[in-house]
């Protein structure tokens, strides 16, 4: 009986499901494009692309 909210992925515009107990700062994965998305605000729900952790690709 969980109610899912759907917000728009900032990357691809697809639907991202958000659980009722989501918190600000929670990281979600977009099912459509696979991007990592961070919850910035809850009312209204606003999503932003999560900052990419530092990765050393050139090493
Ligand atoms: Zn997406």
Structure at a glance:
With 59 residues, this protein is mostly beta strands. Zinc ion (ZN) binds next to loops.
Low-confidence stretches: none
Structural class: mainly beta
Q: Number of helix segments? A: 0
CATH class: Mainly Beta
In total, the number of strands is 5
Strand content: 35-45%
Q: Give helix and strand order, one letter per element, not per position.
A: EEEEE
Bound ligands: zinc ion
Helical percentage = under 10%
Word description of this protein:
The protein is mainly beta and 59 residues long. The protein has one domain (5-49): Rubrerythrin, domain 2 (Single Sheet). It is 0% helix and 39% strand. The protein has strands at 5-8, 15-18, 27-29, 36-42, 45-49. It has a three-stranded antiparallel β-sheet with strand order 3-4-5, with no helix packed on it. The chain has a two-stranded antiparallel ribbon with strand order 1-2. A hairpin with a 2-residue loop joins strand 4 (36-42) and strand 5. It is globular, with a radius of gyration of 13 Å. It starts with a strand and ends in a 10-residue tail after the last strand. The site of zinc ion (ZN) has 8 residues, from loops. Zinc ion is lined by residues 9, 11-12, 14, 30, 32-33, 35.
């Amino acid at each position: 009986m969980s109610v899912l909210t759907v917000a728009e992925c900032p990357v691809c515009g697809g639907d991202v499901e958000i659980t009722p107990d989501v918190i600000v700062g929670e990281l979600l994965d977009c099912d459509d494009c696979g991007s990592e998305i961070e919850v910035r605000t809850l009312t209204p729900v606003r999503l932003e692309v999560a900052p990419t952790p530092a990765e050393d690709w050139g090493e």
